[in-house]
Amino acid sequence: LGAGLTTIMGGIFFCVSLNFDFLLGTIVSAALLGITIPYSILKRFFPKWKKTIIGNAGSYTIGYVLSYLTLSLIKQSGKTMPEGMLMVVMGVVMVPMLDILRVIHKRVREGRAMLVPDRNLLQHRFVRMGIKPALTPLSIIVLFLLFACVNMVWVMNKYDLSVLALIDILLWVGIQTSITYLIHRREEKIHRKEWKLRH
What we know:
Layout: H1 2-19, H2 23-45, H3 55-75, H4 85-109, H5 122-129, H6 136-156, H7 161-198
Helix pairs in contact: 1-2, 1-3, 2-3, 4-6, 4-7, 5-6, 5-7
């Protein structure tokens, strides 16, 4: 999932940088894709690679590269690129960023340690909702592309950016509310079934 999302982020950043002649962004994005695409292929189709993980060092490095690309593209806004590149970039990084903020808020609210694992990350919520684990990465990628495409189309058409920010927030809240409802409904059915079997 991480490699897949990183590949999509790198691909979008590469296309935007290439389209607006941002040479350094194009080179860095291409380098990122040169790492994540082969890794995704090896992990998907070669059994010996299935248990490999990117690890903390790899995650930090990819995070730094994505951060550089994010800040660089925003800095080019209004110069080589159209105004509103902040919202294009936000559309690309919005799903993982908002999900992490939601998880941190939930852990703080419940008084739990930050580094203790739980089942509240987006991929776990999709599984709890009833989506098969094999389809969960694809579902998250579709959600990710939804935000990225909406923001890119909106900015390229030079619509009001304040309205776009409101749409993003409402879309995210609506999606999370729907997921929570579906999780509760499914888990209630499971508990009811278990109660009947025991009694």
